[in-house]
Amino acid sequence: MSGRHIIDPWDSTLPSDYESLMVEFGVERMTDELLKRFPYKHRLLRRKVEFGHRDLHRILDALENGKLYAVMSGIKPTGEFHLGTFMTAEEIIFYHELSDRATAHYCIADLEAYADNGIPLDESHEIAISNVADLLALGLDHERAYIYKQSEEKNVMRLAFLSSTSVTFNILEAIYGQKHIKYYFSALVQVGDILLPQSDIFGGPKPVLVPVGIDQDPHIRLSRDIAKRLDLIPPSAVFHKLTRSLLGEEKMSKRNPMSMLTLADEPSLAAKKVWSTLTGGRGSAEEQRRLGGEPEKCVVFELMTNHFIEDDDELRNIYWECRTGKRLCGDCKSQLADLVSSFLEAHQRRKEGMMDLARSILEDRAGFHGRA
Ligand code: SF4
Fold it and tell me: How far is the CA of 278 from the centre of ligand 1 (A)?
């Protein structure tokens, strides 16, 4: 691995070039041929926000042949869902709903929240309940899902320990760079999470899909390597482009609350944040009418593309109106602020109704959903 640069999953930096990352790390492209195999396509697929994958064909084969597969994802319970974690939640729900033979595994990474952010487990527990309520409100079918906390799932610890027997410091350093031992330990626990759906209690080896941001690829590479050594199926992954912060300077992260939109924001506050979001507009209205804007640089346009405008024709119109100077940034911000406010109002109402169920799933392990 010498000569490669390191992707740091714990860092907030945005990749400068997705293409070269794909080449360097052997990520496969999301081709039109692959897209044709989906019975229907999520907007993230149609718009190539999901731009790369590893072994997605395994999942599509299982889907086409009515075979079992699992979708695995999770959240670090350090705060409310922001648009980055919202994207991953949408993906797990989409790939889960594609087949009634698919199960979902959703990990509350409370150990990582402790290691990386110093949040004690009792504190992260209440955050986790809120996160799970968000996931349920977004539509995850919990009857076919296993939602758990890392710190309470012995099988994750068992798999993390088994994994540790087949890696050396050199391997971890080559993937993650020189890190404190807590990060290496967290990485092995995440391998345990990713391999959990293939353990005996869930029916043994099966294709597993992990939808993630490209920044999480180091965990995918490590998990695939260890899976082969443990006679399991190397997990597949789909990679999405990272959601930028509202000011566009780094990835959206809970480390910078003023530069993120969360699903718990007061709708009026969220609308205000939209009005201060980075655009690709020109210095004056006159200049913008003359030269057109630059939607490729615009975070407002990115939010519309990734989350808030479902209709492809409408999005295309916005793009061309911007490029040709027929649209000004105030038009977009006003439209997006309305869309975000209405979405949040409806979501927060649904979430309120899910809080008891979320608590019961985490505290009573209600039904132990998804076990074979
Ligand atoms: Fe972005 Fe809209 Fe301004 Fe174009 S007009 S740069 S899409 S906010």
Answer: 9
Nearest CA to ligand 1 atom 3: 329
The finding on whether 301 has its CB within 6 A of some atom of ligand 1 is yes
**Whole-angstrom distance, CA of residue 145 vs CA of residue 366:** 11
Q: In this structure, are residues 66 and 100 in contact, taking their beta carbons and an 8 Å threshold?
A: no
Token pair belonging to 85: 């974690």
Look up tokens 């003023």; give the residue: 258
pLDDT digits (tens, 9 = 90+) for 243-260: 889 988 777 776 666 789
Per residue in 211-237, pLDDT (tens digit) is 998 888 999 999 999 999 999 999 999
Q: Is the CB of 108 under 6 A from ligand 1?
A: no
The answer to whether the pTM exceeds 0.85 is yes
Measured distance CA(105)–CA(140) in Å, rounded: 11
* pLDDT, tens only, 286-337: 999 999 999 999 999 999 999 999 999 999 999 999 999 999 999 999 999 9
For residue 13, what is the DSSP state?
Answer: P
**Residue 325 backbone zone (phi > 0: left; psi -120 to 50: alpha; other: beta):** left
Q: Which ligand 1 atom is at minimum distance from the Cα of 327?
A: 5
Side-chain-facing half-sphere of 163: CA atoms under 13 Å: 30
133, 8, 15: which is closest to 80 by C-alpha?
133
| pLDDT, tens digit, 9 for 90 and up, residues 39-97 | 999 999 999 999 999 999 999 999 999 999 999 999 999 999 998 899 999 999 999 99
Residue bearing the CA closest to ligand 1, atom 8: 329
| Residue range 333-371, pLDDT digits in tens | 999 999 999 999 999 999 999 999 999 999 986 444 444
Q: Determine which residue's CA is closest to atom 5 belonging to ligand 1.
A: 329
Q: Cα dist. 26→10, 14, 33, 54, 138 in Å?
A: 21, 19, 19, 8, 33
Rounded Cα–Cα distance for residues 366 and 311 (Å): 38
Probe residue for ligand 1, chosen from 297, 300, 302, 340 as the CB with the greatest number of ligand atoms within 8 Å: 300
Q: Residue 356 and residue 282: Cα distance in Å, rounded? A: 48
